[in-house]
Each structure stands twice: as C-alpha cells, then as structure tokens.
C-alpha cells in the first residue's frame, strides 16, 4: 500500500499549528512506514503470534498521558491479550510533542477454552489450585519500567536522576478524524483514524 501521496496532500492542507484540543482520544493505526512497527502488520503472519489492532490513546494535554496499545492472540493459548506501552507527553512546539516512555507490559489476557481444559479438566473436580491458576491468568498484568538509573558517577547525593527513554514526535496533520505524525530520526510516518 502506497500512502505517501495522500498523507503529503493532507499535510499540505494543514500548514499551521496543531490544535492540541483535538488530540485526546483513541486513535487506530491504519498505516506506517516505521521499521519497528511494520513487521507487526504483516497480514499473513505465521502462527503462533497474531497481531490485531494497534492504537495510540492520548489523554488531554494537562495530564500528558499516552498509551501505545497492541492487541494480540496466540492460537490454542490466548484468545486475546494486550501489550501496552505507557508514556508521558508534553508539547515542545506548535507541531512537536516529546514522548517519554515509562513502562511496558501485558494485560487483558483471555485464555482459550483448550488451555483452560488443559489447566483444569472438566472431567475432574476443580481444586483450589486450579481456580487460583485460572484466576491469576485472567487477572494477570505485568509491567516493567522503561527508565534506567544513571550510574552513581553521574548523580549527586541530593539527586536521583533517571534517564527516560523517549523521542520527539512531529504531528503534521490533526483533525477530528485523522492524525498523521512522524517519529524523529528513522521512526517513520504514522497515520491514525479516530476509533
């Protein structure tokens, strides 16, 4: 799919500062040139990992929260699950925001009937342990921080500096229904529609 022409056309129509009041909400990714995301979008991905929709969800500017959300499934094991990367954002210019990644994790796991039968067979009485395992899988939410402590050499006794993993994001077009942006460096272009 070649989208460079239309996105350049929309960007040309929006030769002004972004109206950040339109940013809050859930945006579904429909196209990207980002090398770290394109492999996820391969439609005929072989088992065992299937990727569903990819979203970016922004809070209002005052809160400055953003989540990158990837829906996935693993046939025979998981009906669905969600990978989520949480970040903070702040406005750097009329068209640029800074993303500071905070943590990444997995949540909203829904196991398949086959896996549930394997863990707690229907022909046997379910024990307390079976119930606990099934409950733990249903409620599982695991997140790891995406911040690295700077070595002590670079810290004073009165500060506890942390380095946030982040990047700048250039918003080139935003209206009620469409968001086009690009990550600085070799991040690529992203086209979203409001969900």
From TrEMBL:
The chain positions of domain Plastid lipid-associated protein/fibrillin conserved read 20-192
Q: Which GO terms describe its cellular component?
A: plastid
Ordered alphabetically, the record's keywords are: Plastid
An example of a Pfam family matching this protein is PAP_fibrillin
Q: Does the keyword Plastid apply?
A: yes
Q: Where in the cell is it found?
A: Plastid
* Superkingdom: Eukaryota
Keyword Transmembrane helix tagged: no
State the InterPro entries in the record. PAP, PAP/fibrillin_dom
For this entry, the protein name equals Plastid lipid-associated protein/fibrillin conserved domain-containing protein
The scientific name of the source species is: Coccomyxa subellipsoidea (strain C-169)
